[in-house]
Records
---
Amino acid sequence: MEELIQCIKPYRSILLAGCNECVTVCAAGGRKEVGVLASALKMHFMKEGKPFEIQEVTLERQCDPEYVEQLVSNIDQVDAVLSMACGCGVQEIARRFHNKPVFPALNTKFMGASERQGVWAERCQGCGDCVLGFTAGICPVARCSKQLFNGPCGGSTNGKCEVDPDIDCAWQLIWDRLKALGLTERYEENLPAKDWRPAGGTGPRKIIREDMAS
Ligand code: SF4
Ligand code: SF4
C-alpha cells in the first residue's frame, strides 16, 4: 500500500483498472480486488483530508488493444492510471495513452498453475523451444533451480531441491514420471546444449502469425 500511495499521491484522480483474465483467477487484480483497493485508497486519502477521486474499471483483457481502447472515455477524466493487470497490461495502457502516467499495482511473478486453493507455482518460463516431450511433461527450465537439462545435480535429498527444501527436485519428478510411464529409456537420451535465443537471449521476442497479421 505504501508504495502505491507514493506513486499516486502527486495526483488528484486516478483510474484504477482491473483485468478479467489471469489476475482475476489469481484473486489479485479482478473486479473484486479493484473494489477492495479502491476502498482502501479512498479511506487513506480521506483520513489525510486530501480530495482524491478514484474511478474503477475492469477490462476483459488489458493485454489486448481492442479492450484497452475502451478506456478512451475515462482517460481524460483522470490524472493517472493504476493498473491491476500483469506487467503486459500495464505496458499496453502505457503504449496506448502515452501522455498519461501509468503505475503497476501488482508485482508480476511468473507463468504458473494452481497447485491447490490459494497456491500457485511457476511452471513455464516461455523458453521458446519446449522440451516437455522429453522430460515427462515436467519443465527443467522453470522447475529445476539450476535449469539442468540432462539429469539432476546430485544435491537433492528425499526428492527435495538442495537450493530450497520446500521445492520438489524437478529431476526427481521427471524420473518418477518417466518410470510411471514406462519411458525410462528417455532418461538415457542426452538433450543438446540449449539454444537460448528463442528464450529471449537476443532481445525482446515477438510472434508474427502471417495468416492473422494485418
Ligand atoms: S521447456 Fe520452455 S516452453 Fe516448455 S514448459 Fe519449460 S519453459 Fe515453457
Ligand atoms: S536438486 Fe534437483 S531441482 Fe534442485 S538444482 Fe539439483 S537437479 Fe535441479
Note: The CA atoms of residues 20 and 60 lie 5 Å apart.
---
Amino acid sequence: MVSFSKYRELPPLLDSHIHLTHDTDGMYPDHFHYFTNSASPDGWSSILAIDNNQVFSFLGIHPECGSGPIDDIGWEVHLKELEGFAKSQPIGIGECGIDNRYYQSFTKFEQHQLLQQQLRLAERYSLPITLHHVHAAEMIISSLKNERLTTRFMLHGFYGSKQTAKRILDLGGFLSISPNLLRSKEKFSQLVSYIPNDRLLVETDYPYTYIPAEWEDYSYAEVLYTWYETIAKARVIDIHALLDIVQSNGKILTNTPLDRRSII
Ligand SMILES: [Zn+2]
C-alpha cells in the first residue's frame, strides 16, 4: 500500500516521474500530484490499485526487465494485457525506452522492438509516454521519428546534451529533469534554463533519486521542494511561477486536469 500524509506545509507540487509503489514508506503529501511509473508487468497491478485522484499512472516495460528474446519471455502477451488496461482507463505508457547498460541481457534489437510496440500502442490510444534512455539518444530519436508520433511524450531524468535536448524539443517532446542533473554543475547550468517554459517538467524518480550531500536528511517532500527551489532560482523566477509552468505542462502531457486547489 502506498502511504499518503496530510502534511500540507508545502505548495501542491507535481512530481512528473516517480515510483510510488517502490517505497511504501515515502509518506507522500496527499495534496501533491504524482505521475507514477511501473517498469515491469509485475508492478502494474499495484500501480492500478492506488486509489487517489492526485495520481496519474504510467504502465510500461522498461529495458531492465528483459532477459531474452521477446517471444521467449512472452512480451506479446504482456503487451496485449497492457492494451486491455489502455482501453479501459486513463493511463500513460512508461516507463519504456532504450538502455545500453543492459545490451548484454536484452539486446539492442530486442529493446528497440519492445519500445516500438509500446510507442505504437500509445499512439493507437493517444496516450502519453514516459521514455527512459541511457546512452541511446540516437535510437530513441530515430524511433520517435519513424513512428511519426502525434501523441505527447516526455524524456524523464533528462541528462543529455543541449543538442539532444533541441532535437527532442523539435519533435515536440517534454523534458523532465531530476536532481540527477546536479551531479554535474556544467550540465545543470547548460540545461536548466535552456528548456523552454512550455516543455519543462520536474521530477524526483523517487526512490531512485540522486541526493546531493547537503540534502541528505531531507524527507521526500523536502527533496522535491528543494529541487523546485533550485530550478526556480536558476531560471530567476518565483517557485510558484515554476509550479504553474510544470502543472500546465503536466496537464497537457496527461490530458487531465491537475487542479492545484482540488483538495486543499
Ligand atoms: Zn523511473
Note: Residues 86 and 125 are 7 Å apart (CA to CA).
